[in-house]
Structure formats: C-alpha cells, structure tokens
Amino acid sequence: MRSEAADVLPTLSAVQASLGLFGEAIAGSAIGFARAESPVECWPWTVTAPGQRHVLLPPQAKVHDDARVIGVRYRRLCRTIILHRMLTAAAPDAVEGSRHEAFEYVYALVEDLRVSAQIRSRYPGAASELAALHSVVASELSWPAREAGLLRALRIRSLDGQPTGPVDLTAEYAEIDRLTSSVVTSEATAPDSVSAANALCDLLRSFGAGLDELVGDIANHEDAPEIASQGTTGVLLDAGTPTEFEVSNGLGGGQLLSDSDDATMTNREGGDEPTPGFDLAVAVTASNVDLDRRTYVYDEWDYHARLHRRDWCRVIEEPLVGDDHDFMNDVRQRHQALRSRMRRSLMKLRPQDLVRVYRSADGDELDIGAAIEAIADRRSGAPADDRLHVRRDRAARDVATAFLVDLSASTSSPAVPPEPEVVPDTDPMDDPMSYGPIWDAAPKPEPVRRVVDVAKDAVALMGDALNELGDQYAVYGFSGTGRDNVEFKIGKDFGDRVTPSTWASIAAMKPLRYTRMGPAVRHAAAKLGAQSARTKVLIVISDGYPQDSDYGRDRHDRDYGIHDTARALLDATAAGIETFCVTIDPAGHDYLRQMCPDHRYLVINDVESLPEELAKLYLLKWAN
Amino acid sequence: MDGPFYLPLADEITVFEAAVAARLPVLLKGPTGCGKTRFVEHMAWRMQRDLTTVACHEDLTATDLVGRYLLRDDKTEWMDGPLTRAVRTGAICYLDEIVEARKDTTVIIHSLTDHRRLLPIDKTAEVLKANDDFLLVISYNPGYQSVLKDLKPSTRQRFVSIEFDYPPVDTEAEIIVAETGIDAEIAVRLARCGEKTRRLRDRGLEDGVSTRLLVYAGHLIAQGIPARRACEAAMVQSLSDDADMQHAVADIVDVIFA
Asked: If we measure between CA atoms, which residue out of B98, B115, B24, B4 comes closest to residue B55?
C-alpha cells in the first residue's frame, strides 16, 4: 500500500509535480504554481486574474508540526487551495471603474460561498480541509473598524462562521442567507454568483454604507498584512523558471539559496508561538548535501606529451530535475509535420527479421526431423520428445543510443541570428500619420529561441520516436569548468521509464559553462558500455570545438581538446560503440575531420533544421 | 434469458446491424476498457450468432488463426484454427486488439474482408468460401500502440469503423450500477473519478481510468471494501507506477469521496 506519511518536511518543489497533475485533472488544462508571498494570497476569496493559470501556494509546510503528519497535511492544504481556485470563476467585466472594484470585492466573497458549497457536495473529501482553512483564516482576520455589519456577516458566512461572537449578526445572517440562497446549491454556477453579488451591492448601497469607500478601506487593510515581521521576502516565481529564493531571518540581510536548498530545513529560529494554519516561516539551510551527485574520474590524452594523464578529470554526474511539464506537448506541437513524417518513416521499416526456432513445443509448422525421430523413438519403445514444431520468433530490436548534448554557455546564443535593426532616418514626429515614437514602438518580440532550445527539441523528438520504436536511449548534457568539474547532467538515463518528469528533466537542460568534450564522451561511453544491447550508439550534439579553461597549455590551445576528444571517440569505437558527432558550427568541418572519420560526423548550417537532420540521420543509420 | 449488459451510447447498434446485413466487416476503435468486447458479446447474443473471440498478442501468427497440422499417432492431422472454424460455421470472429498480432495475420484477413470473402489455407491447398453468416470484427486502440504496430491504411480501409469512447458521467454511473449493484450516488462519484483522470491522458496516463476499472472498484465496494481503499486497489495502483501520477490520482479519489 502507498504510504501517505512523509519523512521529510515537504516543500512546494517536492509536491508540485503531482499537484500539477491533480490540478490539471480538475481544471482540464495545465496549471502552474507560484509561491505565495503572503498568506493573504492563499485565502479563499483571492480570485486570480482572468487568464492566469498560476495558483499561489504556500512555499512549504509549517516547520513546527509533527513531521510524520505534516506531509499529508501540507498536500491536503495545497490540494484544497487548488480545488477552490479551479472552481472559482473570475468576476465579469460588467461594471466600470470603482463601482466595479466594489462589485468584484463582494462577488469574490459570494463566489467563495458558491465554491465552498460545490466542494462540500461534489468533493466531500476536501470539505474538512476547506473548513480547517476557513477557520484558520477567520481566526487570523483582523477587522477594519468601518466594516458594515452586512459585509462583515457575508465575510464570516463565506468562512462557514456562525452568527455568534462579540457582535450579534443574526439579522444580517438572515439577510445574507436570503440573498445567497441561490448560490449555495450544488447546481449553482458563476452567473448565480453575479446575480447575488449585484443584489448584495444594491442592498449595501441602499443602506448608504458608502460601499465603494468601504471596500477600498477593507482592501487597503488586507493589502498590508503583517508579513514583513515574519522575515520572508520570497521572489515570486513563475513555474519553470530557474528558481532562487531569497530568505532572510528578519534581521536584515539574507542569503541567496538555490531552490534545492529548501529541501533541508531546520525549525524556525526564535521562540515564537506557532500560528495555526500555513505560515511562511523562515527556512534556513542546515546543509547542502546533494545525495544525487556522483563523481567519476577519467584519464585524459595529452596530445603534446603523447601520453595519458592518469585520473586527470573529475566528472560529476547529476540528474536534471525540471518542472516544465508542457515542454513535450509544445515540442510535439512545434514539430507536428516532422513528427508525422518520422512516424511514416518508422512505419515503413521492414518487418523485423524472424528467427526459426527448431524443436519447439508449439509453432507454425512441423519440424520434420524432430517428427521422424519421435516416430522412430516411439516405435523402438524409447520415450519420444514432444517438441515437434518450428517456431518463428521475431528478432527484437537491440539498440541502445546515448545523446550527449553540449551545454556550453555558447548554446545560449539565438538559434536564428537577429535581423540587423534598421534605424529610420526620419523623425516619426514628422509623419502626420504617426502618433509619435511611443505608439510606433515595435510590439514585444517573441522570446528568442536559443541553440540549446533547438537541441532540446531535437533530442526530445528523437526520444519520443525511440519510445515507439522500442530502442533504449539516454539523454545527457555536459559542460563544466576545469578538469575537476566536468558537469554531466542526466535528462534520461538508460533504464529510466519515460514519465512526464522525464520530459521536464530534458526541458531543464540549459547553457552552463565550457565544453570539455573528452571526459564527457568517456563517461557516456562507459554508461553505454554497461548496456547489453547489440548495437550501441553515441551521438554527440555540439555547437563548437572542445574547450575549457585548462584544456591544454593555454585557453587558446584548440588542438589539445580536439585530440583528447578524438582519442575518447576512438576508444569508444574500439569498445564497440558507434559514435557520431553532429555540430551546428559552420566551421565544424575544420576540426571534426580531425576528431572523427568523414562518415562519422555531420555539420548542420541551419540550426533550426537540427531536429529534422538528427531524425534523418537516425532513421538512415540505425532504424533499419 | 438476459444477454450481456450493454448500454448504447449512440447509434452503434444500428450501424452494426446494418453492417451485418450487408456482410461488411467491422472495426471497433476505442480506448481500453470502454466496452468494445462487451458490445460484440451483446450483439452476438442479440443476433443469436456464435462468437469466437481471439485476444491477439505479439506472438500470435497467421498459423494460430488458420490452423496447423498436428501429429496424432503416426499421422499428421489438420486442426482448424479459430478463424477457419468461424469461417466454416458462420460465427462472428472477434480479433481483439488486432494490431498486437504479427503482421502476417493482417494479410490473412484481407481476402476475407472484401467482396470475395475467401480464406486461403496454404497448408491444405484449400480456398475456403466464408459461410453467409460469417462476420469478422476486429478491435483496435489507436491510443497506445507503438507506431510499428499502427493499423495500416490498407487494412483499416476494409472495415466499417465504429468509434467508442468512455461514456459521459451519468451514463457511466448507470453502467456501474447495472454491473455492480452499488448505490447510484457512489457510482456517480466513481464515474467522476474516471472523468477527471482521463484529463491526464496527455500526461503519461495512456487512456485514463477505464470503465472496466471503475466497475472493478464498484465490485470491491459492493463486497464491503471502503470506497477509497477500493479505488486505490482498482484504480490508483492499476493505472500507473509513476509516484507523482499515483499521488495525483489518489488525490482525485480522496477529494471526490467523503
């Protein structure tokens, strides 16, 4: 059985993959998460802007709860917030100006009532978490002095509150219940909330309560939560961006931590009384030990000294983790035509070779030799073998391929060089049809696709196709600085099952530092060598010649790196691995012909054609 | 006697009957566990025909379908395969998940699926004319087969296609009630779990929870297993081995059941 209890304190990064799937199942389309900067952003009536697909969630669980139960609690809390957000409809643009603001405010409260009723009837498993969330929010609310009885009653009502307390709101409750009776049924829809909110606004105005000013007052009150004293200044993050999170202890200053650091936490400092519900308490790292990193040591070929430098390079292997779960869908969409061409080509592959297996218990035809022997045995009284058939078995595909992608800093350059900017020689103000330079400004450009983005598309498409073909494959990236730090990133390893996280890991490949290709090739070859496949293929995808800060006598020593890589490729070939280099560097011919034989490399002039060229290459050489 | 339960979703029964009347072979397309096999069983019962079902697998060859010589005493003896038997006797032959079988099987059925309605048997040098009542039905799940196993256009275009999908929530709940006898309210919740998980088809869940799995969960509930535990056993664990996906499906079940 699945164990629900978590052993470590959960963080948003740890649970967001599965919560994303949950949210998508509820919403019907992909959603993303961002860390809430303050608890207010997670409160039930905080309606997200129309079109915004990000749900703000508390960045981590409360650290002062019992670690064994907190995992479950944090998940449930996040899950309830997601459910609430997904069922909540944005306010319609019905009323203009400040009246609209007041309407929106009341609408959000009414919509909370409706959604809460929906959750209770359609998702009863989340009802208790919703009640808990409501009671936490109710206990943390501080009331603006001028809040009218009716509005206050509505707010408490939306939080499942009862008409008790210091102020008797019984009459207001009766009125609220009358006006919102249509929204608390399980069939109510957003238009019901709109009607009820309009009715409530009219009633509030008829009391002369100065609704608009009041709403402004309340909004201001809520906008200034006492969060600063809790010492967290989170950088609001978009899902999928490199994550850095600044955490301070409230004493000024702060340290920049990488996202992975929030996996290890200690209790918050100081003797504060724990507040109920989620808080954004300080996360302080105790250590930064990453158990997923592994280190390997490899020799390097010194071309000048004509010898191997023993144990010269340290390769640090590390799995990539990403959260861009839309990546593969985007790739499939971007390369729809190529994908269907690839599918057609794969379908045309000749049928698998069949191997005849004689003396089988079952099969297509009789094994005449075995049958004659069996008859002879039987007649002579000896026991007869009953395996009398010939079976034809399909010879399975037996190919293992490693894609090794260069993640050097230069892969951040645009895949298509930008057009030179044309500066007009006339003043736009002279043009009577122009409204001035501001209005003539060019629209915001599309994000520039970098070389690494194209490379990622290419290997992801190949991976997608190889899944269908049944070939084993791995996707690695490499970069690094210096011989002690050759970074070897694993997007997908051999044996890893392909899951949505696999594509997100490949999507997480990004430009890093230098290109020390030799040790990366050696490590990839070692990993390939451990595979049992009959055909082993290593495809290196790069954008320039091998180089590193200490790859040779000096940084400009191109020959050293070229010869070391050539040696690594040669060793791999000797170990039975078919190697192939693909480069998008137009000058690639100059050094690739030194690194590998002519039929073992390909220079691509148009970067954007890399996915197509790679597919063609694979189909031509290894698919058939 | 009541036949196998089947709740029509559209005009599939009418189309099937028309195809049978015109002696046209039928292709049933749809995700796993949506009721294709049940539909064929229901139609065979409705039309009072014998039904031969072959669950195709990757080692299924033309020989397995057509027949083979076996040794009996000191002689060889021809033994009809299920397809040949159906062709001779005029039964419905249902090849379930045809694309799973080896390619030579699809070639065998070509001459049976056009106007000739012939089955050539190489080994006995016989060309068998199909009985008038013979009907070939194949099924195919376009979703998850490997590209190498896709149905070729030349095969596909010999069949009248009837497309199946998972039913809407209310209908699916009705099916679950009819199959398991559980409370309608619980059946609706099970159907809602199905509806939600099917939105994750693009995220690594090939087809989402099938109606069959929902019916399994219903059976477990009818046996007294608590709803969440029944769903975990029948759905969460059966759907995926990916931890994130299991968590997400468990969350869906968790919020839908009280």
From this structure: B98
Q: Which of A138-147, B161-170, B238-247 has the lowest mean pLDDT?
A: A138-147
Domain count, chain A: 3
Alpha-carbon Rg for chain A, nearest whole angstrom, is 32
Indicate the domain borders of chain B.
12-163, 169-256
Q: Are A458 and B137 in contact (CB under 8 A)?
A: no
Is A99 buried (19+), middle (13-18) or exposed (0-12) by CB count in 10 A? middle
Q: Does B241 touch chain A (CB under 8 A)?
A: yes
Give the whole-angstrom CA distance, residue A248 versus residue A427.
Answer: 50
**Nearest-CB residue to B147 (from A123, A347, A388):** A347
B83-104 CB burial, b ≥16 within 10 A, e <16: bbebbeeebbbbbbbbbbbbbb
Beta-carbon separation of A21 and B150 below 8 A: no
pLDDT of residue A4 exceeding 60: no
**Residue A238 pLDDT > 50, yes or no?**
no
**Are A618 and A571 within one domain?**
yes
Domain endpoint, select from A176, A201, A229:
A229
Average pLDDT over residues A585-608: 87
Place of tokens 């759905």: B235
A124 part of contact set with chain B, CB < 8 Å: yes
Q: What is the ipTM of this complex?
A: 0.80
Could you tell me the residue range of the domain that residue A192 belongs to? 12-229
Q: How confident is the model at residue A563 (pLDDT cuts 50, 70, 90)?
A: very high
A25 in contact with chain B, both atoms CB, cutoff 8 A? yes
Quick check: A73 pLDDT over 60? yes
User: Residue A564 domain-assigned?
Assistant: yes
Which residues on chain A are in Cβ contact (under 8 Å) with B152?
Answer: 347
| Interface membership of B146 toward A (CB under 8 Å) | yes
State the pLDDT confidence band at A213, using cuts at 50, 70 and 90. Answer: low
How far off is chain B from A28, nearest CA to CA, in Å? 6
Q: Which of B59, B147, B152, B185 to mutate to test the interface with A (most CBs of A within 10 A)?
A: B147
* Interchain proximity A366–B69, CB inside 8 Å: yes
pLDDT at A441 > cutoff 60: no
Taking only the tens place, the pLDDT of each residue in B64-106 is: 899 988 877 777 889 999 999 999 999 999 999 888 887 778 8
The region of weakest confidence among A15-24, A146-155, A507-516 is A146-155
Q: Is residue A239 assigned to a domain? A: no
Query: In B, which residues are within 8 Å of A393 by CB distance?
Result: 59
Q: Which of residues 419-448 of A touch B (CB under 8 A)?
A: none
Does B32 reach chain A within 8 Å, measured CB to CB?
no
Mutate to test the interface with B, among A3, A18, A352 (most CBs of B within 10 A): A18
Looking at A205, A229, A253, the residue that finishes a domain is: A229
How near does any CA of chain A get to the CA of B229, in Å? Answer: 10
Interface test with B, best of A4, A12, A13, A22 (most B CBs within 10 A): A22
CA A332-A333-A336 angle, to 5 degrees, is 75
State which amino acid sits at residue A547.
Q
**Is residue B149 very low, low, confident or very high in pLDDT (cuts 50, 70, 90)?**
low
| CATH code, residues B12-163 | 3.40.50.300
